[in-house]
Amino acid sequence: xxxxxxxxxxxxxxxxxxxxxxxxxxxxxxxxxxxxxxxxxxxxxxxxxxxxxxxxxxxxxxxxxxxxxxxxxxxxxxxxxxxxxxxxxxxxxxxxxxxxxxxxxxxxxxxxxxxxxxxxxxxxxxxxxxxxxxxxxxxxxxxxxxxxxxxxxxxxxxxxxxxxxxxxxxxxxxxxxxxxxx
Length: 182
Known about the structure:
Blueprint: H1 7-10, H2 13-20, H3 22-33, E1 37-42, E2 46-52, E3 56-64, E4 67-72, H4 75-80, H5 84-95, H6 101-108, H7 114-118, H8 120-125, E5 130-133, E6 143-147, E7 150-155, H9 162-181
Antiparallel strand pairs: 1-2, 2-3, 3-4, 5-6, 6-7
Helix pairs in contact: 2-3, 2-5, 3-5
């Protein structure tokens, strides 16, 4: 009987170096060695963490069909492919203890936090798009909701509280999804 392939068993320095290239690998190796990795979720085939570089980036590694898939919120991942943050998480995992059944069960049964309960549209949107808060110097809006195609909605100028700004964005996202996806 063959042993089930796990993410940790699949990871190796050589594999990470091949995916990232030698320069990116060396930078990721430095991030891992310097303690810039924080692991959030760890199951047998997936890991999600945060790697702090110039800012914190959310990084995920997943083993599917004997292929390593990586995602990261840094711009390099979208522009160049496998990034130093993904390398750092991979190297960190190689030395981490394997997940226990309890950790895997907890990851599968993750409960939404208060923010996701109050603003489910925003919480869902940021999986594939992004939201900017604050003035950008080009418009009077405070909030910009974007996806890979660009600006989807902007607003937030008529509220005095962050809750009001976020609720307006939540409503705009719900309307956009209704008008464009359903």
